[in-house]
Design goal:
By secondary structure, the protein is an alpha+beta fold. Helix content is 55%, strand content 8%. It binds ligand LT2ZWINM and flavin-adenine dinucleotide (FAD). Pfam families: ACOX (PF01756), ACOX_C_alpha1 (PF22924), Acyl-CoA_ox_N (PF14749).
């Protein structure tokens, strides 16, 4: 079937090459090209297609479908991608497995990275290759039923038995059951388990252990292990998140991951070079989250923008033809700032992935000095991007009207998966407060006359306000954001200090200032996102692409400043606020002809998108009808439940 002419016209009005934009989004022409090649190759392999739409499947079917595809994938793996390239591998996973989770998701995102970061060279020799070849399937078991946030209160124990040189793992209470780890329930046969290291009755706190859970031949749980699935979730139902308990389960001493902390055979403990080095697997995932979430948001926007360009409803001036809903200013205001955010998140994502990779090298070389900075940055970023992604996806759903609410749009699934990120890898409020600790310390350095020692990301906290001339472009908006973040950070810190100085305990003062502190963290993070966006656009060579991204940046800076209006009242007059508001409306109009091309540039395939509304060809209505007819409820005209219950009820009522 040919493309919907409305979309053809939209594509013709684009002022730039989508391939050139994809090269900017994905960091290089080479990777953008590889993505297309991988997508193209996969589309030719029929076994990778869904056997029927995932949204009509039960959990069991979804998991089985994911396993089927993984088995097929193992035959093609080496021929489809450069297996040493993490980004290629993730693209392949996204294309073939989609976003609902699968039995290898945690193996790739946490199990292997934990082995790389936490296992000694000998341990890597023993397990890493096996994991990379997928001879074993691993997961990351940290969270317990009773504790996820407060890691110091985890209850699982690994007690060193000097006589046998083994650790004995135990789950002493119901609340100590590991609860939530992805792929733990039914798929993984090994896990990295975080347990309290106990030697001679001394608790050294949580440490990582490599633990075999299931027999490698029969896949049956090993004696001493209780393991299973935790049941259906809001989304991610292609994954078997699990529970796990230990009863006097013994593992060799060599199974404690010993790159950093060590236990010798006589039971001596060797401290790691940094107290939180064992938390690095979480930092790794958080450093990827801006990218992952940017892509979730992008997916919802591809659907909503394409659909809005083919959906006609109501009239503007021309009463002879209904207008595309994308031409309504309200629709543009609902969608375009989110397009800008999706771009900004992806740009930040590449940056934090790069920073993590560098940190990993530094730490392996004994330099842990960058850990606090990256922890603070990624804590704030994961919190802000997950929240704003959730907001943006929900707006995208509403922008699709009634059909957005149908699973045919697939937006609800994207939403469910994306907002999981507000919780996993550290609940958002908790992580904002981690960043706040860092910000408060920075203010304390300024108060103690050590401004010069501040890192580049917080140097603005020591600066004074300057005059703002909004006609000068994005950098002036950055100053507005700096003003807001600086003011709020000082205000929140001073509130905390005042409470503490009044005699309150440190903890209670912190608690009573915490809402204000989280606000400071959000503003600081949004400032970082904006400045990364501005820097990125500044570095682009292709002038057509750059021109459009400047337009998109204008949407971003004006929208973001309007959104934080309450924090800039002392800086901007109401006339200046009106000016910004008008600039935003002008920016929406400017970006309108490029809207479809901007979302096309994400190059998210139909196969991955799984959306009837977001189809690249725009042939929505005929496919919506086809999709509805394929619903299992339509297999018969009369359902057994009607025959069994409703008919007798109606018959009875007639009497
Ligand atoms: C940090 C805590 C909240 C507190 O820890 P605690 O030990 O109690 O800390 P304190 O003693 O209070 O000390 C705080 C100080 O320590 C510093 N600190 C803390 N952490 C770090 C760190 N990591 N590095 C450096 N420094 C650190 C902190 O700054 C303080 O310093 P100071 O005193 O101020 O100087 C901690 O308890 C915590 O982190 N809690 C959160 C727990 C958590 O995050 N758990 C995660 C469990 S694992 C999980 O959730 C997994 C989820 C799986 C997600 C699945 C993802 C699948 C991919 C999805 C996408 C699919 C698409 C396809 C793939 C694709 O696209 O990628
Ligand atoms: C989809 C998904 C996948 C997951 N995968 C894994 C996995 O693979 N492996 C794994 O180990 N775990 C996994 N988890 C668990 C996840 O990491 C935890 O649920 C998360 O860290 C939050 O911890 P919690 O559940 O204890 O929340 P809680 O800490 O109980 O949060 C409840 C409320 O208390 C508040 N709160 C808690 N502490 C504080 C504080 N100090 N200050 C202020 N407010 C506070 C929170 O902000 C929140 O509002 C997964 C979770 C989900 C949803």
């Amino acid at each position: 079937m040919s493309e919907n002419p409305d979309l053809t016209n939209e594509r013709a009005s684009g002022t730039f090459e989508t391939n050139a934009m994809a090269a900017v989004i994905y960091g290089s022409e080479k990777f953008a090209q590889r993505r297309r090649e991988i997508t193209e190759a996969i589309s030719k392999i029929p076994e990778f297609q869904d056997s029927h739409p995932l949204v009509f499947m039960s959990r069991e079917e979804k998991i089985s479908e994911a396993c089927r595809k993984l088995a097929v994938l193992s035959n093609y793996w080496n021929s489809l991608i450069d297996t040493s390239d993490e980004e290629e591998a993730l693209h392949l996973y996204r294309e073939v497995l989609g976003l609902e989770g699968h039995p290898l998701a945690l193996h790739e995102t946490m199990f292997i990275p934990s082995l790389i970061a936490q296992a000694s060279d000998e341990q890597q020799e023993k397990w890493l290759g096996r994991a990379q070849r997928r001879e074993i399937i691993g997961c990351y078991a940290q969270t317990e039923m009773g504790h996820g946030t407060n890691l110091r209160a985890l209850e699982t124990t690994a007690t060193f038995d000097i006589s046998t040189r083994e650790f004995i793992l135990n789950s002493p209470t119901i609340t100590s059951l590991k609860w939530w780890p992805g792929a733990l329930g039914k798929s993984a046969n090994w896990s990295i388990v975080i347990a309290n290291l106990i030697i001679k009755e001394h608790n050294y706190g949580p440490h990582p252990f490599m633990v075999q859970l299931r027999d490698e031949k029969s896949h049956e749980p090993l004696p001493g292990i209780t393991v299973g699935d935790i049941g259906p979730k809001m989304a991610f139902n292609g994954a078997d998140n699990g529970f796990l308990g230990f009863k006097n389960y013994r593992i060799p001493r060599e199974n404690m991951l010993m790159r950093h902390s060590k236990v010798t055979s006589d039971g001596s403990y060797i401290k790691p070079p940094h107290a939180k080095i064992g938390y690095s697997s979480m930092v790794k995932v958080r450093s990827r989250m801006a990218m992952d979430q940017g892509l979730f948001l992008a997916s919802a926007l591809v659907i909503a923008v394409r659909y809005s360009a083919v959906r006609r409803q109501g009239y503007l001036e021309d009463k002879s033809r209904e207008v595309k809903v994308l031409d309504y200013q309200t629709q543009q205001h609902r969608l375009f700032p989110s397009i800008a955010r999706a771009y900004a998140f992806i740009f930040c994502g590449f940056e934090t992935i790069r920073l993590y990779d560098q940190l990993l090298i530094d730490v392996q070389n004994g330099n842990t000095s960058g850990m606090a900075d990256l922890h603070a940055l990624t804590s704030g970023l994961k919190s802000v991007v997950t929240y704003q992604t959730g907001e943006g996806i929900e707006q995208a759903r509403m922008a699709c009207g009634g059909h957005g609410y149908s699973m045919a749009s697939y937006i609800s699934e994207i939403y469910g998966v994306a907002i999981g990120g507000c919780t996993y890898e550290g609940e958002n409020m908790v992580m904002l407060l981690q960043l706040a600790r860092y910000l408060v310390k920075s203010i304390e350095m300024i108060q103690n006359g050590k401004s010069r020692e501040l890192g580049p990301m917080v140097a603005y906290l020591a600066e004074n306000e300057s005059e703002i001339d909004l006609n000068l472009g994005p950098n002036e908006y950055l100053k507005v954001f700096e003003y807001a973040a600086r003011n709020q950070t000082w205000r929140a810190t001073e509130k905390f200090q005042k409470l503490r100085n009044s005699g309150m305990s440190n903890e209670e003062a912190w608690n009573q200032a915490s809402v204000e502190l989280t606000r400071a963290s959000r503003l600081h993070t949004r400032l970082y996102i904006m400045s990364t966006f501005i820097n990125h656009v500044g570095s682009i060579v292709d002038q057509k692409v750059k021109g459009v991204l400047i337009d998109l940046l204008n949407v971003h800076v004006t929208y973001e400043v309007m959104d934080i209006g309450i924090y800039v009242q002392g800086l901007l007059s109401s006339n200046q606020m009106d000016l910004i508001r008008n600039q935003l409306y002008v920016s929406l109009e400017t970006i309108r002809p490029n809207a479809v091309s901007l979302v096309d540039s994400f190059q998210i395939s139909d196969m991955q998108l799984r959306s009837v509304l977001g189809r690249r060809d725009g042939n929505v209505y005929e496919n919506l009808f086809k999709w509805a007819k394929s619903s299992p409820l339509n297999k018969t005209d009369v359902l057994p439940s009607v025959t069994q219950y409703l008919k007798p009820m109606m018959e009875k009522s007639k009497l």
